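Sample A.
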Amino acid sequence: MHVLGLLFPPGLLTAPFMQNAWISGSAVAILSALVGFFAVLRAATFVAHAVPRASFAGAAGAALVGGDTLLGLGIFSAISALGIAFLTSRRDRGQITALVLAAALGLGALFLALGDAYAPQVYALLFGQIVGISRADVLGILGLTGLTAAAVAVLYRPLLFVSVAPDVAEARGVPRRRFDVLFLLLVALSATAAVPVVGALLSFSLMVGPAAAASYFGRSPASALWLSVAIGLVSVWLALVLAYDTGMPVGFFVAVVTAAFYGLGRLWALTADPLADAA
């Protein structure tokens, strides 16, 4: 009982701000895992890295004009995703993504220079402030999670086909370009919800880490998707407990736990097939 009291001190589950953290963190874990599964499958992890960072400019701009930062995040996430979608060709995807990211970060720096929100607000945008999430933010994040989950459920089969075998899917009449755009919009929705919780710099770990780890454990795309969600939830829950106990940032523990799961996945793959890594 003494050990449980140390791990789960009073207030961890009952304090209002922690209840908001548990709900929003769980929602973001599910949302990020669903989208991250397709990002890993499509080898589009750089996009999953770039869009959340680009959305930072939208939050900084909203803070500058006194607007809603979640709305600013959503607008810039969508603009960045659509910019990457419509400017990218098959040969220069990485270059366009990097240029969109650089342009957005430049705008973010400009908005910060023009405003006076350079201390706590900027820190929260960069590294997240899950224990500072309001009830209104929770409702917005839950709405984004529900919307994304419904979209993934509807688009799952054709999006999976385009992600695994894009040329074959295109030859069979599946509109590849349209699904590329839809995937990027899903990344934008995920970034909008994740940045207030774990920050622009660390949301990448929650989107890619669980999905990358699940790719080693899953025996089928469906099992890998569900494992990705499970790993994401466990990662966030462990991070919340450890952060509450130590006072250290939640984002740090999210990054460490997801990296640990990925390491376990690699070890599992090597144990199951020692020749896989050499191949």
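Sample B.
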Amino acid sequence: MFDIADLKLENLLCAIDDEGIATVTLNRPAKRNALNAATIEELVRLFSALPGSDVRAVVLRAEGPHFCAGLDLVEHGQSERSPAEFMRLCLRWHEAFTKIEYGGVPVIAALKGAVVGGGLELASSVHIRVMDETTYFGLPEGQRGLFTGGGATIRVPALIGRARMVDMMLTGRLYSGDEAVSVGLAQYRVPDSEAKAYELARACAQNTPLSNFAICSAISHMQNMSGLDAAYAEAMVAGIVNTQELNIRSSAGTDGDRVGSLKYGDRVEILEKSGDWGRIS
């Protein structure tokens, strides 16, 4: 497992438990966890390292009452960036969120309070979004004389449709409660988003790492392909994943008995974090 201390994080916290669940925390509560350039770079470094570690799932949470208020407008105003400089910054946002979406490790976001602007761009890059009763979603760029630069035009329409996104940006419309779930901004609405996020992360961690990698990368890649190319890619991924071999332990056998290999269609219970052992049911 990689040494978190080597990453020298200041705006993020990261801890990994014995089950291989990583907790990544946005840690700028005084700024409503707004994303400055330094935080984006930390996200790039951290989510570049996590897929190569023993981490089996990630819970993305935030300190304070808000998940993320988006772009740090104070830094933006003080930086006086040129168009080329801000374009390069946007590309770093894309890099960070691409690492999350395509990294192959399940990322579950525990949402609360504001999930607006760049905060929604961040949330839309994860694989499962869990909201609580305080959560609201918005894209207020239109009212602020801004335009999205971190992938909203790519990911948000995929969740809720182009027309709803345009409405959010033009009018400042907010989504919350059951409506947010019904349009696709979150998959779960619960009283305690963090507790549910950890429950889901533990469930994901029981899957084989190769299956999780395919689910959390190949599906997104295939959305960028033509139908014909996606069908070919799906067949290739299925050929690899569905013929993976695992050492398994029979529920009727004694500890340590290795009785065969995983066959397509078998249900496997992972018994150890490493994924080396499983049980056919």
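B remarks: The two ends are 30 Å apart (CA to CA). The chain is about 40% helix and 15% strand.
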